TrEMBL record:
It holds the Pfam family Strabismus. The gene is Vangl1. GO terms for cellular component: plasma membrane. InterPro entries: VANGL. Residues 1-86 are annotated as: Disordered. This is VANG1 protein.
Length: 525
């Protein structure tokens, strides 16, 4: 246990020192950037109004500082600073207030829709009961006696209302998965249809039964039964429009992540654009690997290094400054194009070599740790039941032997921001509890998983914005393109209609496969 506590303090110290060193490098770059002219800087307001920049907004400085140092910089660097890392500007306050207003508007719209649907549903279920009870309350003595057929209709109404209640609960009373920007057209049409239908039944009931005080009680009960039957047919129509219509695949959508170009294909049915966007996002969290902005900084830092080595001289005077600089940069970049691919090749080869080296060390360390666990389990079986360690204590006992190798591998592959010490210990104790192998434990770290695999706090995409030239309530069509934007990247969705396939049949005569083999009795010698 003491070894585990020492490693835990080392791990937390690594995080403390690395965070201070990142802030020191970030402040150093800010000091170097301060003498620049206003043309080279961009204010927060301009970024907010214009389209989001192509590079990610989180993790750039830390990744850039990490790229310029060796693998052991977290253990050998100490920075002391008293500057606060939290700051807020007037634009941030305005943006926060706008987000609060939008969230309040969405909540009001959602609760208003739920309230209207609940009130209408309650009216629908109480209407047949009211049709049957009102004559008994208002003119009970004048009613004709209810015979056997009339009493049987009571049972029919009760069971049909029960079936309608269960079907309505299964179809409509679900936990909402998302807040859509517009109303669901088919659901709104069904609500309007139900309202008009119930209103027309009440209008007929008030004019022909309540005003005239009809004494035929069996006919009144039959009228209530007809209402319940019609409501069951409307529920069947709702199932067809809301559930069955979208099951048959009609379109193929290609989803491309704008930063790294990762893409997936999905088949969709007849859906509106906003519901298709919801399906795409549900599949994105499951199928796409987690977005890691640190992996995109290598090429940008290499391009920045090339541009930093260029010197531009203005020989045409101040009037042609911009055009002269751009022409000189383009010419210099063209001259150095032949050498840049060699540098890229050797950088990638060196990175792959270091990743393989760290991976091999990590695999060996984890296998040795799990071997130690098996020895501990064999020793624990000989002890009393009260002296045995739980999986959490066992994970803390073997974690020191693999901590350094795991830290180095995660830094080399730039995954350290997704795995905290607590999450690693939880995963290790989970693997020990379920008697999993070292390869099963390493699967989470050797292969980047989907977004759902990581904690929600580690996600870079929580709130999305749908951008479409067409109305989001319109259906999918061939060639429609819409974009789902979040803070750091966007998903570009291109819709293609599945082509009409025509199959023809060709009949093959079974006798055509038969043949005759004739052998000659005499052969040449």
């Amino acid at each position: 246990m003491s070894a585990a506590m020492d490693t835990e303090s080392t791990y937390s110290g690594y995080s403390h020192y690395s965070g201070h060193s990142k802030k020191a490098h970030r402040q150093g770059r800010d000091r170097h950037k301060s003498p620049r002219s206003k043309d080279g800087s961009r204010s927060e307001k301009s970024v907010t109004i214009q389209t989001p920049p192509a590079e990610p907004l989180l993790g750039n400085d830390a990744s850039r500082a990490e790229e310029a140092q060796d693998d052991n910089w977290g253990e050998t660097t100490t920075a002391i600073t008293g500057t606060s890392e939290h700051s807020i500007s007037q634009e941030d306050i305005a943006r926060i207030s706008k987000d609060l207003e939008d969230s309040v508007g969405l909540d009001c719209k959602r609760y208003l829709g739920l309230t209207v649907a609940a009130v209408l549903g309650l009216l629908v279920f109480l209407t047949p009961i009211a049709f049957i009870l009102l004559p008994q309350i208002l003119w009970r003595d004048d009613l004709e006696p209810c015979g056997t057929v009339c009493e049987g209709l009571f049972i029919s109404v009760a069971f049909k209302l029960l079936i309608l209640l269960i079907g309505t609960w299964a179809l409509f009373f679900r936990q909402p998965k998302a807040d859509l920007p517009r109303v669901f057209v088919f659901r709104a049409l069904l609500l309007v249809l139900i309202f008009l239908f119930v209103f027309s039944y009440w209008l007929f009931y008030g004019v022909r039964i309540l005003d005239s005080k009809d004494t035929n009680y069996q006919g009144i009960v039959q009228y209530a039964v007809s209402l319940v039957d019609a409501l069951l047919f409307i529920h069947y129509l709702a199932i067809v429009l809301l559930e069955l219509r979208q099951l048959q695949p009609m379109f193929t959508v290609k989803v491309v992540r704008s930063t790294d170009g990762e893409s997936r294909y999905y088949s969709l049915g007849h859906l509106s654009i906003q519901r298709a966007a919801l399906v795409v996002l549900e599949n994105y969290y499951r199928d796409f690997t987690v977005y890691n902005p640190a992996l995109l900084t290598a090429s940008k830092s290499r391009a920045a290094k090339h541009m930093a080595g260029l010197k531009v001289y203005n020989v045409d005077g101040p009037g042609n400054n911009a055009s002269g600089q751009s022409r000189a940069m383009i010419a210099a970049a063209a001259r150095r194009r032949d050498s840049s691919h060699n540098e890229l090749y050797y950088e990638e080869a060196d990175h792959e070599r270091r990743v393989k080296k760290r991976r091999a060390r990590l695999v060996v360390a984890v296998e040795e740790a799990f071997t130690h666990i098996k020895r501990l389990q064999a020793e624990e079986q000989q002890k009393a039941p009260g002296e045995m360690m739980d999986p959490r204590e066992a994970a803390q006992a073997i974690f020191p032997s693999m901590a350094r190798a795991l830290q180095k591998y995660l830094r080399t592959t730039r995954q350290q921001q997704y795995h905290s010490m607590e999450s690693i210990l939880q995963h290790l104790s989970f693997c020990i509890t379920n008697n999993m192998t070292p390869k099963a434990f390493l699967e989470r770290y050797l292969n980047p998983g989907p977004t759902l695999q990581y904690d929600r706090d580690r996600w870079f995409s929580k709130q999305w914005t749908l951008v479409s030239e067409e109305a989001v309530t319109s259906g999918l069509q061939d060639g429609v393109v819409f974009v789902l934007k979040c803070l750091d990247f966007s998903l570009v969705v291109n819709v293609k209609k599945i082509p009409f396939i025509k199959l023809s049949e060709e009949f093959i005569d079974p006798k055509s496969h038969k043949f005759v083999l004739r052998l000659q009795s005499e052969t040449s010698v």
